[in-house]
């Protein structure tokens, strides 16, 4: 075969997935129809959980050099902002960063790992059989055909891979359309602005030193088809109607119309074909969640696909990609639908409802609940039923400070740079020497350490296995009668049979 994995689509999701596979020594190729990155940016924010997973690969610092940390977010443009600063993380903010910059950093990362990226190659046909996949593309050299064991469609909402695989979308179609424009505002508001009145909703925020993004939901323009181009005069008249001023709007760099669909692929895997990002789900872009969940999917899929190709994956692992991410994205669609509903009607009753919810968000517990949801800190995968119950099982791995055997103090995320499992033993237990000594896993890093500082959730942990995507596969309590036996079982369940090679 030409490659082990072919990825259709070279946006942020495709690039991160390619990098994750290359990190595991998988031969991967990205086919991207565009010659270069789009100059405009659909996404403008990198959310807290995404920053954490990128930190695990050493990428967060580079992004911070390009973006601006902002501790606040929003839900449906309500007056009370979401407060990310209370989240238990050093990434307790959203990073304001145009998507083009995120994409460039991820492409650079993928190239540094040896990923082959073919631009101006448009996928036109995908086929699979029990032995592999065939991808036909059209590029500068004409039509070409490549083979691979697997293909991943990261090719956007109109995904050709999804369509050719025969994977249907389910959900609800658009009830209305909204507009955005990246424009020059000679008279911009002093701070980011959100205004919701009986005349409509407007959101304004800076994109660059020269451009502001204007997002509009106008009751008089809500039923214009998504395909109809937005005009500068349309934006200007809507601003006057809602704000009483057009703020001197001029020089549009990019304008677009988008809908409120809530659609999801019925399966994320069909044989040797997988879907990730917008190819798997289409939703109203409320709260800036789309790119972020796609990047989290890339992290979820990469190590599982690598495990299958390298021969160590247990037989249930690949199917767990759909099993884990489908419910997460069902919840995503529900929260974006709720936000869309709150922007669909501009009656006094909706204005009153928004006011009530805005006051509710002033309650710290309510604000934390919504902030955890938008940031993806609330994601928890189904605990492994084959292991002893523990509160940490399936949860997000937080930033522990660890003192290693050699006395060095390390942030635990640094130990995930290689994309391997992290076997973290937090006790001195002679019984474990024989157990660990039997392994020669190439995809598991064994670390013996002690906690530094307070981490109450971890006080009783004897040993934990951290997945490559930064979730806890299982934790074994210090009170477990036979921890060595449970740990041995857990390693085989997640990391495959003993590797003596």
The CATH class of the largest domain: Alpha Beta
- What is the overall pLDDT average? 94
- Briefly note the structural class of the backbone: alpha+beta
CATH homologous superfamily grouping of the largest domain = FAD/NAD(P)-binding domain
Radius of gyration: 24 Å
Counted beta strands: 27
Q: Count of helices?
A: 12
Major sheet details: 8 strands, mixed
Unreliable parts: none
Helicity, as a percent range: 25-40%
- Write down the CATH topology of the largest domain: FAD/NAD(P)-binding domain
End-to-end span in angstroms?
A: 25 Å
Strand content: 25-35%
Overall CATH architecture of the largest domain = 3-Layer(bba) Sandwich
Structurally, the number of domains stands at 3
What is the overall shape?
Answer: globular
């Amino acid at each position: 075969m030409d490659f082990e994995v072919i990825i259709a689509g070279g946006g942020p999701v495709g690039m991160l997935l390619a990098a994750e596979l290359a990190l595991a020594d998988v031969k991967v190729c990205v086919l991207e129809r565009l010659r270069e990155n789009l100059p405009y940016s659909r996404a403008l924010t990198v959310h807290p959980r995404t920053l954490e997973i990128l930190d695990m690969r050493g990428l967060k610092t580079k992004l911070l050099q390009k973006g601006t940390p902002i501790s606040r977010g929003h839900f449906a443009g309500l007056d009370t902002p979401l407060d990310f600063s209370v989240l238990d993380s050093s990434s307790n903010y959203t990073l304001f960063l145009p998507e083009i910059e995120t994409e460039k950093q991820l492409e650079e990362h993928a190239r540094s790992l040896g990923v082959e990226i073919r631009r101006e190659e448009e996928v036109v046909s995908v086929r699979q059989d029990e032995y592999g996949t065939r991808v036909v593309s059209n590029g500068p050299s004409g039509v070409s055909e490549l083979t691979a064991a697997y293909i991943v469609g990261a090719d956007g909402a109109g995904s050709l891979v999804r369509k050719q695989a025969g994977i249907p979308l389910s959900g609800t179609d658009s009830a209305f359309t909204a507009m955005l424009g990246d424009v020059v505002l000679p008279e911009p508001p002093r701070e980011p602005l959100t205004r919701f009145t009986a005349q409509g909703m407007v959101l304004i925020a800076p994109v660059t030193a020269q451009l502001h993004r204007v997002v509009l939901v106008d009751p008089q323009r809500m039923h214009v088809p998504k395909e109809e181009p937005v005009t500068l005069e349309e934006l200007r008249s809507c601003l006057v109607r809602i704000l009483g001023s057009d703020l001197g709007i001029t020089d549009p760099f990019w304008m677009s119309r988008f809908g409120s669909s809530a659609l999801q692929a019925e399966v994320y895997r069909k044989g040797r074909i997988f879907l990730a990002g917008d190819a798997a789900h289409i939703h109203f872009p409320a709260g800036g969640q789309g790119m972020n969940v796609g990047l989290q999917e890339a992290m979820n899929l990469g190590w599982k696909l690598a495990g299958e190709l390298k021969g160590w994956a247990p037989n249930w692992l690949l199917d767990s990609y759909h099993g884990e991410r489908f419910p997460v994205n069902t919840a995503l669609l529900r929260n974006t639908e709720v936000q869309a509903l709150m922007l669909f009607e501009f009656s006094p009753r909706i204005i009153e409802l928004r006011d009530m919810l805005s006051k509710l968000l002033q309650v710290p517990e309510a604000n934390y609940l919504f902030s955890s949801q938008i940031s993806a800190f609330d994601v928890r995968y189904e605990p492994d039923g084959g292991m002893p119950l523990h509160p940490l099982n399936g949860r997000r791995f937080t930033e522990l400070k660890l003192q290693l055997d050699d006395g060095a103090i390390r942030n635990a995320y640094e130990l995930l740079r290689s994309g391997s499992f992290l076997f973290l033993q937090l006790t001195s237990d002679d019984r474990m020497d024989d157990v660990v000594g039997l392994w020669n896993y190439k995809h598991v890093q064994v670390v013996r350490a002690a906690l530094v500082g307070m981490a109450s959730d971890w006080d009783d942990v004897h040993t934990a296995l951290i997945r490559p995507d930064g979730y806890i596969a299982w934790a074994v309590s210090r009170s477990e009668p036979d921890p060595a036996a449970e740990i041995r079982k857990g390693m085989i369940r997640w990391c495959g049979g003993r590797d003596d090679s």
